[in-house]
Amino acid sequence: MIFGDRPMLIGGAFATASAGAWITSLNPATEEPIGRVPAGTKDDVMRAVAVAADAQPSWNERSIWERGALLRKLAARFRSNAAEILKMEATDTGNTIAKLRADVEIAAGYLEYFAGLATEMKGDTVPASPRGIHFTLREPYGVVGRIVPFNHPFMFAAAHLAAPLTAGNTVVIKTPETSPLSGHLLAQACADVLPPGVVNIVSGYGMPVGDALVRHPGVRRIGFTGSAATGMAIQRAAAETCVKHVSLELGGKNPLIVFPDADVVKAVDATVAGMNFSWAGQSCGSTSRLLVHESLYAKAVELLTAKVAALKVGDPLDAASEMGPVNSAAHFKRVMSFIEAGKAEGTRLMTGGGRPAGAQFQRGYWIAPTVFADVTPTMKVGREEIFGPVVSAIKWSTVDEVIGIANGTDYGLTAAVFTNDITAALSTARRIDAGVVAINSSNMHFVGLPFGGFKNSGVGGEECLEELLSYTQVKAVHIQMTPGR
Ligand code: NAD
User: Fold this and answer.
1) Residue tagged active-site, from 177, 190, 284, 467
2) Is 284 a catalytic residue?
3) Which of 343, 366, 440, 395 is nearest to 429 (CA)?
4) CATH class given for the domain over 255-446
5) Distance 43 CA to ligand 1 centre (A)
6) Could you tell me the pTM of the whole model?
7) What integer pLDDT is reported at residue 484 of this predicted model?
8) 483 pLDDT more than 80
9) pLDDT digits (tens, 9 = 90+) for 154-185
10) Domain 4-250+458-475, second-level architecture
């Protein structure tokens, strides 16, 4: 196994699981075992939370400048270790290495951004009474639990440290059970740079590790990124223990709407770029529903099919590859079941629809990039998140109809609108139920603006000041300078 055993980090020391069990990670391109992580237990979570709680007061007593300096040092560590992180991450996830380079930079950038934002954790002074001074303070929660999905395990685990640590919390991270190996590289960096217990990394399955973290009464703040079903389970489990602040970054079935006046070539290019085929479409923001006006529909489907069929599927470690395999055997089965449903529901399969041709793709979790045309909004492939390399093209005739289709799923993460008519663009942006709307572009993330969903796509914006403040709780302080009010 090329990457060997990769222990967890608890209290500044590397640790195996209390029950001694391991999870073997497979290379999704070949199905070969490449490394192991401990299959953590409830006891491991209890231990991690206990050391995080011990470490929190002295972490919070450091000035924001000291904490910021350590976060910047951690960011520098990520950059200097980028080659090792990227090789492991591409091998373990199947994400292609050329685009994956950005993940390390994004994680490092978040640490620096939030370190620099620390003075914005301000309170307010309110003239609530004539002889008093009334102000608010922002204080950390204590121990924060952050739970990470499989699609960008290093980037999410590393970037999601930034806001809670800046706010003076300590953190317990739960890494995903598939593609978990890079969690150990993060653990090494944290062990080298941060005081023991400030960041703890526990590997293992959702049950028991994620669940134990969510239910722990000492963890009052949970930040979760993953599926809507798990997000709802987390809300339920948290509420069964005590009152907690739970923020959720969940899935999407994101529409890209093409109006009759739009540049159809640009719209299709943006659909393919927005699909994030570099991670086999395993992206919450994937532009997986292309909603095209009937006047452009045939052209859009033709262009989309040609562009998707031309994507270079290949070894994730080859810089020329544009798409690798999906992440795991279970996920392969799930995506394929959607593809079979699409075929059975009477869509037109334009390209893909199974394993790519070629001996090298018959083993491993390879799925050819797929386009379904003539999808209707009630079909499974037109309504549910596939989280794979599958685009569904849907035709519309009136604006009210397309808004109905766009808003007709349980999700509301991102949307895109292609038109040169400013009124149509802005009124559509207003009418779409989504946390992020891009006009004449797709899948936009800018540090400083919130990324987060409406409806079943989540609660709480991230990548901005709102994320930092969400890791604080507000206390009102009243000073009475003379007796009375
Ligand atoms: P998932 O919900 O299956 O798992 C996510 C994490 O939750 C894993 O670490 C898993 O072990 C853990 N988990 C599972 N059950 C749990 C439980 N009962 N209690 C606590 N933790 C539990 O999601 P996934 O398959 O890893 O990721 C794919 C999903 O994540 C997609 O729906 C995708 O859209 C979403 N996602 C959203 C964003 C965003 O920013 N909105 C980003 C990336 C991925």
Assistant:
1) 284
2) yes
3) 440
4) alpha beta
5) 22
6) 0.97
7) 55
8) no
9) 999 999 999 999 999 999 999 999 999 999 99
10) 3-Layer(aba) Sandwich (3.40)
